[in-house]
Structures are given as C-alpha cells and as structure tokens.
Amino acid sequence: MEWAYNGVSWVLLRWHDLWSNVFGGDDNGFLQSDWAWVLAIVGVVITLRIILFPLFVKQIQSQRAMQKLAPEIKALQERYKNDRETLQKEMMELYRKEKANPLMGCLPILIQMPVFLALFHILRRPDPAQTMNINLYGWTDNDWSTYVHAKLFGAPFWSTFLTPADDLIPVDSSSLNVKLVAGILGALMILTTFLTTRQMILKTGWNEDPNQRMIQKVMLYGIPVIMVFSAGAFPIGVVIYWTINNLFSLAQQQYVLRKYPPPQQNTANAKPPKPGTKAHEKMLEEQRETEQRRKDLAPKPGQKPKQTGGAAKPASGSGVNGANVNGSGAAKSGPGAGKNLSRAERIARAKKVSGAQQASKKKKG
C-alpha cells in the first residue's frame, strides 16, 4: 500500500499548498489552516472523481446493457440448464456481441477502496503524541504541525468520536466539542450514503430476482447500520472525505442517470411515454430488439430435438417383429426412441409392445 499512501498524500499536500498560497498562508489568510485542510480534502475528492468519471459512465452503460439482455440471459439459462459449459459460452458471446461487461460495475469501487484506506491511514497518523516518522509520504515539519493543530469548529481533524479527553488537551480542544462535531458529521455521512444507494436503486429499479433484491436491500439498509458503529473510529478528516464524496456521487449519478435512463422493460407500473416522442420511439425500438433476440434463441418450428447414440432409423411400418406398435405408421425404435413422449404415451406404448410380443409368442406356440 506504500504506492497508495504516497500518491494520496501527494495529492492532498498539493491541494493544501494551493489553498494556502491563494488565500495568504495558514495564519493570515481568509481561509486559515482549518479551512485550507478542509478544501484540500475536497480537492482529493475532486481529483478522484475526475479520474473515475469515464469509468462511471462505462459502468452505467454496462448496467443498461445487462438490463436489456436480462430476457435473453433467462432464455439461455432455460435452454442450456443441463449444459453449463455451453451456457457460459453462449452468455460470453452475448456479452461480446452487445458490448456488456458484468465486471464493470465493480471496477469504480475497487479503485476507490485503496484511496479511502490510504487517506484513512494518512489522516489519522498526525497527533500531538506522535514524534517519529513525521516526514513520511512527502510531509514536512510544517505540514505536520499545521495539520495537528488545525480544527473544524474546534475539533482536530485527526480526532475521532472516541478520542480520550487527555489527548485533546495539547491542542486546546475538549471531548464534548469533538463528540458534537464528529456526531453531526457522522450522521451526515450515514445519511448521504443511504441517499446515494437509494438513488441508484430507484433509478435502475428493484431487481425481479428475489436473491438480487435481497442484496439490494442489504446494501440500502445494512451498510448505513454498520456505519453507525464504525463511524466512531473514523477521524474527522476521513468523515469529511466520505461525506463530500457522497455528495459528489449524488450529483454525478443524477447527471449520468438522466443522460442514460434505465430501460422501461422492468418497470411494469411505470407510465409509458407519449406516442411520437423520442422516448416512445426508443421504447418501441428496444421492444423490437428484444423480440428479435427471443426469436433468434427460440428453436425453429418443426425442428426435432437432437438424439444421442447414433441409432439407425428403422424401416417404415416396422415395429417389434415387423409390427407397427405405435399405431401411427411412424417408426420409433432404437436407443433414445420415445424419450420426448409424455409419461402416459410411454405407458401406452409399452402396453402395445407387450401385447404384440404376447401375440407373437401365441402364434409361434
């Protein structure tokens, strides 16, 4: 993780230098060290969002493609339910043809996680009791000192909701003040996390699969509940980052979801678009594409199922000992014959075969 520590720290310090120079330094400017560090954390969020925006757009596009392919995927699963290897090949071919990538939805999260862990490590290191390794990750003595004494409404950035009162005395802060600021910011962090997840689910729609719907509910309600207990261990600087990041996510998702609206096929109760509008034409086009894919996947009319075993076709009108046992003039014998018949038809056929064999034995007797 050293590469992540150095990279995130470099971005954070450059943004802090920018705001300090623009507003006249840490001590004399309109934005003193407290707000310079807040804006530096906001700068880390902006930098990350700029980098991830193209991936976020591709993620939405991939999700839309996956939603449009849901009926085709279900048809393939029913058609090849006993042949997993062929099913995987057909699904991969379908993904390639429609330019859908199921793994794209996880990529932005995988990139954000190292950034969050690195920022968590960097922002909780500086404290009044720490005197070693203060120059790691590109920090100077001045950076360390200004961050240790910087406060947001009287609460140090490195402090947490659980920080003891004795640790706050060297920076002239109180435990009550820290708990108030950390509690309010923690509540905002949990609320914005819930709103971000809710926005995505409402825009894309609840999944029809019960298992996937359960996962959506766990993400919507479970993660905020877990954060109630974990937020107390987050430094105030990390809580600021998470809250600002959620606010950017809300705005970004609103823009991208409006530009790439979800398909209407999974929203049965949604109001259909007015005829003649672009939305209505797009809906008709999606319906035509879906119907064409279903026709392509469906077996052709009159197509016989493939038989295994390589049995030769018997002569017309022959059955057991030359008798036509199926009563329809069609030859049905050999391995695999009759496997597509219903249970009642197989029983009736077996009785006819048994009767024909008994009649043959009586003639021979």
TrEMBL record:
Pfam families: 60KD_IMP (PF02096). InterPro entries: YidC/ALB3/OXA1/COX18, YidC/Oxa/ALB_C, YidC_ALB_C. The chain crosses the membrane at residues 35-57, 102-123, 180-197, 218-244. The keyword Transport applies. One of its GO terms (cellular component) is plasma membrane. It comes from the Bacteria. Residues 37-256 form the Membrane insertase YidC/Oxa/ALB C-terminal domain. It is a multi-pass membrane protein. Coiled coil: none annotated. Residues 261-365 are annotated as: Disordered. The keyword Transport applies. It is found in: Cell membrane; Membrane. One of its GO terms (molecular function) is membrane insertase activity. Residues 278-298 have a biased composition (Basic and acidic residues). Keywords: Cell membrane, Chaperone, Membrane, Protein transport, Transmembrane, Transmembrane helix, Transport. GO terms for biological process: protein insertion into membrane; protein transport. Residues 315-334 have a biased composition (Low complexity). Belongs to the OXA1/ALB3/YidC family. Type 1 subfamily. Interacts with the Sec translocase complex via SecD. Specifically interacts with transmembrane segments of nascent integral membrane proteins during membrane integration. NCBIfam families: yidC_oxa1_cterm (TIGR03592). Required for the insertion and/or proper folding and/or complex formation of integral membrane proteins into the membrane. Involved in integration of membrane proteins that insert both dependently and independently of the Sec translocase complex, as well as at least some lipoproteins. Aids folding of multispanning membrane proteins. This is Membrane protein insertase YidC. It comes from Glycomyces artemisiae. The lineage of its organism: Bacteria, Bacillati, Actinomycetota, Actinomycetes, Glycomycetales.
